[in-house]
Amino acid sequence: MHTVNTTSPPAAATGLRSRLTWFTFSSPVNFYRLAGWLAPAFGIVAAVFAVAGLWMGLFVAPTDATQGEVYRIIFIHVPAAWLSMVLYVALAFWAAMGWFLNARMAFILARAIAPTGALFTVLALWTGSLWGRPTWGTWWVWDARLTSELILLFLYLGYMALIAAIDDTRRADKAGALLAIVGVVNVPVIYFSVIWWNTLHQGSSLTMGAQKHLASTMLIAMLLLTLACWAYAFAVVFVRARALVLEREGDTAWARALAGASKQGR
């Protein structure tokens, strides 16, 4: 007669917990499994927050006394602009970590972030132009913030073009990392441009004293859509990183086993 110990966890699970450290998910296989759980969860969160934020921003928030209805572009423009800068800093951080620590997953994360950061930069520039036409009377001016945001887009595109142009993966990662690290100096220029120079662009929409100038519904809508953008960014970066992991680890036993299981599942 066999007895089963129901009080102790399986040995494999116990071993995983005992080995869990800050570097556990630097392993491509561990990251692949974790991202597989997180990507759909962040996708659901992004959809929920986006619907709630758009409903509140478009139908609940009051009309602005100065700009009228056109100000509602702020609910997309501001989160997109924030994410365009933050994602570039994240790209540069992971690229630097990959360079200095020779960490494969860090380079993969940097590559995965770049297209999403470029997307948010395009969205920020596009919504800014839509907002600028009725506000300034023109679609574009060579304003300090607009120009530095455009440079940010060129940095994203340059990074992606550079790593794609070099066949050797290691050389491409290191060359891209160098560009990303040098380009990060543009981020504080974007953020502080309205302080350092006299520009047409308005100051920060949310500062320590800005809450009293915003209706609570405006503030909540902006924060909901910011969270939606964050969750979307995490979701698509995890999906893209998983694809890159499989591309790079295709010759390993676990990747071949996964591919075989997928074929059998069909």
Structure overview:
The chain has 266 residues and is mainly alpha-helical. It has a single domain, classed as Four Helix Bundle (Hemerythrin (Met), subunit A). The chain is 74% helix and 0% strand. It contains nine helices and no strands. α3 packs antiparallel against α4 (104-136), α4 (104-136) runs antiparallel to α8 and α5 (144-165) runs antiparallel to α6. Mean pLDDT is 81; it is low at 1-18 and 207-212.
Keywords:
single chain; 266 residues; mainly alpha; Four Helix Bundle (Hemerythrin (Met), subunit A); 9 helices; 74% helix; globular; disordered N terminus
Blueprint (SSEs and pairs):
Layout: H1 11-18, H2 28-60, H3 74-101, H4 104-136, H5 144-165, H6 169-183, H7 186-196, H8 216-248, H9 253-265
Helix pairs in contact: 2-8, 3-4, 3-6, 3-8, 4-5, 4-8, 5-6, 5-7
Q: Please compute the radius of gyration using only Cα atoms.
A: 22 Å
What top-tier CATH class fits best? Mainly Alpha
Q: Name the structural class.
A: mainly alpha
Uncertain parts:
1-18, 207-212
Any idea what the shape is? globular
Distance between the termini: 39 Å
CATH architecture annotation: Up-down Bundle
Largest sheet: none
